[in-house]
Design brief:
The N terminus is likely disordered. This protein has a 20-stranded parallel sheet that branches. Strands 6-11-14-16 form a 4-stranded parallel sheet. The chain is globular, with a radius of gyration of 23 Å. The protein has 4 helices and 28 strands. Helices cover 10% and strands 45% of the residues. It has 481 residues and is mostly beta strands. It has a domain of 265 residues: Pectate Lyase C-like. It binds 2-acetamido-2-deoxy-beta-D-glucopyranose (7 copies). One 2-acetamido-2-deoxy-beta-D-glucopyranose binds next to strand 24. The site of one 2-acetamido-2-deoxy-beta-D-glucopyranose has 6 residues, from strand 11. Belongs to the glycosyl hydrolase 28 family. It comes from Artemisia annua. Keywords: Glycosidase, Hydrolase, Signal. InterPro entries: GH28_Enzymes, Glyco_hydro_28, Pectin_lyas_fold, Pectin_lyase_fold/virulence, RHGA/B-epi-like_pectate_lyase.
Length: 481
């Protein structure tokens, strides 16, 4: 992410490019409908890279925001057109005005910003035939819901660089109810679509948007690096199946901050492939920072590490997290056959209200892709650090289950106060096949975590490269409504 420094010659070049692009864009509107009323409303958006000089509105490409007309072709045409500009003048921006924009899947392009007005709603089509079926993810070997391929996600991108998906809190509505129904009835032919998936890409920003009612996972960056996810609201009924919030999967250098997630599955699920497919692919998720996340997940975890973690998970830093009415805080999910590792995990500053388990580690998660998994593929779980936490109304403080003959080691818990609920189990901690230490923890942890007075668990002092990336403020003047 080498941002160009302000150098006079560069400024001259920028002006030149802007002039050239303005001429190009004047040529390009030839033949397009010119709207009489140029509202000239100015919108601000933050950008991981350059501000875009070439812009267009979805309505320039025949988009109709009536909630009924399909805009699939308009999106594809608009992005196909804007994609031709490449990185010239900082790339291009597609503006989605107020309205309800029914659409099937469309693909993103590089050096590109998708910007949703705050009253813009993308409505995902419920017509299953409109969803292309693509290959399963190589690190999963098969679809998550069914054998074979999977429906492409609503917004999809692969092999891209410099992509921004943002808005003034515009909405992406997956209209997932029929998909949840088919899932429950076992009627799915292929794996349900996600709302946003970015593969094999770098320099990605996803910000200031609301995702609702996804058919399945919401935001899925995979095999990618340098990712900022910021100011996102994700809402799904707490009983909807597998509506995970944000799932960084085999990604490096990712920053998730200021997000609010209510979901029927994990709010954030950190992943890296499934059993023998994930082991063979061998791409970990590492250098992940999660800050200021608020999560409500009555049936799942605030932050899950796994269960698909066969490529490994390393160097995750989470701080300033709020959990309300959630099943567990940070949960490690793994099992024999997964292989891989979960190590160097650091969590501090965690407030929990109404939890089943404040701490949960599961070494017998099961859930294999097929019967070809390797019984000798034992996961390594080590150096897991939790500190500075308060929890209230908790049913059980800790349920820490390692694997027999493969203990989870280097667990550290310090400065944690857990207030048990009226209905709490008599046994407050249940630890098997785990080893570590504790300090200043109430109620007193299990004997597997002996007290080492005064020792605060580790949390790295340094910053990850993605934390130093500044997003700049850009503005866009909407000429079309
Ligand atoms: C989007 O990209 C995927 C993968 O490259 C491809 O299968 C699909 O056909 C593309 N969709 C469109 C509408 O071009
Ligand atoms: C995308 O990148 C991956 C990994 O580098 C590569 O295997 C694949 O062929 C690329 N796909 C396209 C469509 O370029
Ligand atoms: C964005 O919209 C959602 C859903 O309406 C709302 O809950 C959230 O508070 C909004 N966020 C901001 C920053 O306005
Ligand atoms: C995006 O959301 C952040 C909070 O996450 C806020 O500080 C910022 O002003 C918002 N930006 C825009 C352009 O709405
Ligand atoms: C203990 O944790 C609380 C937050 O729960 C924090 O405010 C306090 O500073 C921590 N104490 C120490 C000694 O780090
Ligand atoms: C405490 O947790 C129980 C579930 O265990 C819930 O029913 C109750 O409403 C919670 N009480 C408060 C004060 O949040
Ligand atoms: C404690 O955990 C072990 C291992 O999962 C389990 O077999 C046992 O039943 C648990 N004990 C209680 C009292 O829940």
């Amino acid at each position: 992410m080498n941002l160009l420094k302000n150098h006079p010659i560069l400024n001259v070049m920028k002006v030149f490019l802007i002039v050239v692009l303005s001429l190009l864009s004047i040529q390009n509107v030839n033949g397009r409908k010119h709207h009489k009323h140029h509202h000239g409303q100015i919108f601000e958006y933050s950008a991981i890279s350059c501000c875009r000089t070439h812009t267009a509105s979805l309505t320039d490409f025949g988009g109709v925001g009536d909630g009924v007309t399909s805009n699939t072709k308009a999106f594809q045409a608009a992005i196909g057109h804007l994609g031709q500009f490449g990185s010239y003048g900082g790339g291009s921006l597609l503006y989605v005005p107020p309205g309800k924009w029914l659409t099937g899947s469309f693909n993103l392009t590089s050096y590109f910003t998708l910007f949703l007005h705050q009253d813009a709603v993308l409505l995902a089509t419920q017509d299953e035939n409109e969803w292309a079926v693509i290959d399963p993810l190589p690190s999963y070997g098969r679809g998550r819901d069914a054998d074979g391929g999977r429906y492409i996600s609503l917004i999809f991108g692969t092999n891209l660089t410099d992509v921004v998906i943002t808005g003034n809190n515009g909405t992406i509505d997956g209209q997932g109810a029929p998909w949840w129904d088919k899932f429950h009835k076992g009627e799915l032919k292929y794996t349900r679509p996600y709302l946003l998936e970015i593969m094999y890409s770098t320099n990605i920003q996803i910000s200031n948007l609301t995702f609702i009612n996804s058919p399945s996972w919401n935001v899925h960056p995979i095999y990618s690096s340098n990712i900022i996810i910021q100011g996102i609201t994700i809402l799904a009924p707490v009983r909807s199946p597998n509506t995970d919030g944000i799932n960084p999967d085999s990604c490096t250098n990712t920053r998730i901050e200021d997000c609010y997630i209510v979901s029927g599955d994990d709010c954030v699920a950190v992943k890296s492939g499934w059993d023998e497919y994930g082991i063979a692919f061998g791409m970990p998720t590492k250098q992940l920072v999660i800050k200021r996340l608020t999560c409500i997940s009555p049936t799942s975890a605030v932050i899950a590490l796994g269960s698909e973690m066969s490529g490994g998970i390393q160097d995750v830093r989470a701080e300033d997290i709020i959990a309300i009415n959630s099943e567990s805080g940070v949960r490690i999910k793994t099992g024999v056959g997964r292989g891989g590792f979960v190590k160097d995990i650091y969590v501090k500053g965690f407030t929990m209200k109404t939890m089943t388990w404040a701490f949960w580690m599961t070494g017998n998660y099961g859930s294999h892709p097929d019967d070809k998994w390797d019984p000798n593929a034992i996961p390594i779980i080590q150096n897991i650090n939790y500190r500075d936490m308060v929890a209230e109304n908790v049913t059980m403080a800790g349920r820490l289950e390692g694997i027999a003959g493969d203990p989870f080691t280097g667990i550290c818990i310090s400065n944690v106060t857990i207030e048990m609920s009226k209905f709490a189990k008599k046994l407050k901690w249940n630890c098997t096949n785990v080893e570590g230490i504790s300090s200043d923890v109430t109620p007193q942890p299990c004997a597997a975590l002996p007290v080492q007075g005064g020792k605060a668990c580790d949390f790295p002092q340094d910053k990850l490269p993605i934390e130093d990336v500044k997003v700049q403020l850009c503005s866009y003047k909407a000429n079309y409504m």
